[in-house]
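Board notes (copied after class):
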Amino acid sequence: MQEIIIKENAIFIADAHENENRRGFWEFLQALKNDKIKTSQLFLMGDIFDLLVYEVRATHEFALPYVELLEELAIKIEIVYLEGNHDFNLANFFTRVKVFSIDKQPLLCNFEDNAHTFVELAHGDIFLKPFLQFCLKSLRNHHLLCFLNFINNLCGFKITQKILTNQNKKQLVRKINNFDLIVKNRIKNYKTKFIIEGHYHQDVFYKFNEIKYLNLPTFAYKESFFIVKYEPEIRFHKIELKEA
């Protein structure tokens, strides 16, 4: 696959957790379509939907208009989609959008600065404790998901409805105590000196010696996203489209 260069004015979005009651990401995509927001590159850092799994057909109806719009936008915008733990096995939905599963994360990219700085991108549900990592990977198994889809259909979609109901009740913004210490331990698994993750919803930037770490905010809260600037140093400018 062609190397991905992060361009100036690239947009990074994580954890939109889009559902029937939360449609901020849809409005964002419409703004892109209508050139109210302009970029040549969009990075989706996972959990864009509360639930979207290719094998589970009950999750498709809500998401398909988004899939179609993303594919339309991908004609003129490079769109990179890193799967999360709420949206995965997505490759069959897309032809133009570049999808990276958990097995292909962290994704190594280059910044378009003079130093051609390397950066690793990941949703954040990697490098976890072995048992939890095993469970997350097992849940992505095609045959298991087909079986779960059958059971879900058999019981009148109660499984997916329960998941979505719980997601609606979930508090998306909460401070993780000692998150800096958690990050300091996590970055040992990475190979570059710049790391970007979603998943944790912490909206923080840390620098440990020469290593820089950015954890993106949840878009679902204030519809927050970052725009990359080279000034000449690499900067991430946060935009908030709504008040809390």
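Comment from the instructor: The helical segments are 24-33, 60-73, 130-138, 142-154, 158-169, 179-186, 219-222. The chain is about 30% helix and 25% strand.
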